[in-house]
Amino acid sequence: MGYLLNTGGEEIGRSVELVEVFSLFREPPVQNKSILLLAVAATSLISMSASAAVIASWSMATAIPAATTGTSYNYGAADSGDLASGTMLSSGHAAAATTYSTPAGNGSTYSLSSNNWAIGDYYQVSVSTIGYSGVSISWDQTRSSTGPATFDAVMSVDGGANWTTILAGYSVIQAGLAGTNTTSWSTVTSQAAFTLTAVAGAAADEQANVLFRLRSTVTTTAAGTNRIDNFIVSTVPAPGAIALLGLAGLIGRRRR
After folding, report:
1. Residues 73 and 160 both lie in one domain
2. What is the DSSP letter of 174?
3. In a domain, 248, yes or no
4. Do 139 and 230 touch, CB atoms closer than 8 A?
5. Which pLDDT value is given to residue 236?
């Protein structure tokens, strides 16, 4: 293995260096192997629980028939998500003359659009959150030059009897307006400037039915339109799961 039997300080020094080098290739102790396997397993399991999950998502893949009017319109169920079945995206207006249409979305084929906006008119999503906590919503929204510019995002867990505001008085950008650094919506370009988010809070956890409503706070001219796209109900990783991921990383470093 070296020169331990030779005389002279130089040969002894070389042998010590060789021993140190070869020691790097030795198998780790069984205890360290066990700790490593535990860290790997814990990281895998915790990563799954810490990942965000999409409960329901509407990409507006379906066109609305021409000349669809009325005080309400049910667009349909989510086209993807863990709990997409039984969901519903709808709209409600005071004016019977309200027209619903599906112009180009924010990087997708269609969006849900309507006119004749008055205070309290809305877009709404109905979804179950059974089995999920840490719920949040995100969506893309824009307006015409005369469309409603201010909305509240509200939530109900009792069928609409009571509402909780989760995002108050948010502004809707007019696509292509000077100074907004945006362009008109199209089927090919997705613009992050139009994306809004809101956290539902603990009241939305494990509920058989949650209503999320984007509610206009202003009245506009009859021709003014507002449209939404890419409405997503999802969960966010729990803080405890994030902390455990960090702990698993420390275990992995400790065995080295």
Report:
1. yes
2. B
3. yes
4. yes
5. 78
